[in-house]
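Quick one:
INPUT:
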């Protein structure tokens, strides 16, 4: 009797383990074959169907970060008040209106001057070119193009001798006359109503002779210092410098000094500056009749 009781207990125990419990089986777990466990591991429990697995971490990128684009807005740095005042010895630094004048010194030359002219033409902008007489005589086709495209002329002496202003009125007059004659030999009806002293080294004799010859002594309000590569460097550093100066200092009515002779960085800077300036200011060539 005791053996029969033990046998019944064993059979009853085996039967409970074989039947499903009163709780319904997980429908997902029934169709998933768990990975086999190694002797030292237990199979991971199936995830609850109500919980989504965590997304995988993002893959690290090895590409270098892109440089920030050049900010050409600059509106906060623009002084909207009308520029006034005068330069050394009463020379002209403003246009007399709210328009801005771009001026380019020390040309012409056959390499960079045409590139500046191309940019101005593409943007529909006129400028003033301060020419050296010797270079004008050497590159007549560039002088003709300056005139044909509606830009104005400025006398910048025959060979840009800085000390010319100290040589006396007769020497100055001969130099300025030779420069005007060289330009008019190429463009006979050219009006040359402005004179700019080399390096801005003005003297009273310069002022006297220029006015006697009917030319306005022309200085500048904004100096890009695009010639000063010993300070600002060449290439992109100089381009960035020119752009920053024009952004910071341009205001209605100013005359801006640039150089076209052997200054490719100035050309590169004006790829950026011409659209920026044209969107904010009226750009003009200085009036042929003078100011």
């Amino acid at each position: 009797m005791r053996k029969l009781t033990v046998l019944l207990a064993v059979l009853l125990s085996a039967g409970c383990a074989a039947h499903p419990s009163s709780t319904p089986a997980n429908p997902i777990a029934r169709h998933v074959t768990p990975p086999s466990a190694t002797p030292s591991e237990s199979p991971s429990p199936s995830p609850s169907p109500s919980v989504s697995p965590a997304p995988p971490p993002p893959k690290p990128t090895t590409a270098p970060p892109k440089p920030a684009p050049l900010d050409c807005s600059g509106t906060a740095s623009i002084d909207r008040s009308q520029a006034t005042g005068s330069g050394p010895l009463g020379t002209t630094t403003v246009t007399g209106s709210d328009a801005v004048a771009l001026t380019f010194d020390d040309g012409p030359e056959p390499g960079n001057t045409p590139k500046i002219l191309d940019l101005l033409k593409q943007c529909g902008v006129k400028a003033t070119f301060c020419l050296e007489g010797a270079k004008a005589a050497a590159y007549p086709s560039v002088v003709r193009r300056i005139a044909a495209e509606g830009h104005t002329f400025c006398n910048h002496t025959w060979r840009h001798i800085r000390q010319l202003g100290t040589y006396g009125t007769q020497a100055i007059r001969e130099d300025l006359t030779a420069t005007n004659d060289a330009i008019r030999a190429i463009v006979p009806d050219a009006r040359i109503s402005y004179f700019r002293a080399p390096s801005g080294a003005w003297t009273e004799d310069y002022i006297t002779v220029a006015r006697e010859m009917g030319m306005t002594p022309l200085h500048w309000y904004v100096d890009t210092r695009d010639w000063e590569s010993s300070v600002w460097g060449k290439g992109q550093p100089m381009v960035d410098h020119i752009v920053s100066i024009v952004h910071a200092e341009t205001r209605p009515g100013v005359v801006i000094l640039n150089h076209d002779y052997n200054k490719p960085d100035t050309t590169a800077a004006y790829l950026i500056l011409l659209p920026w300036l044209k969107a904010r200011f009226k750009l003009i060539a200085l009036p042929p009749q003078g100011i």
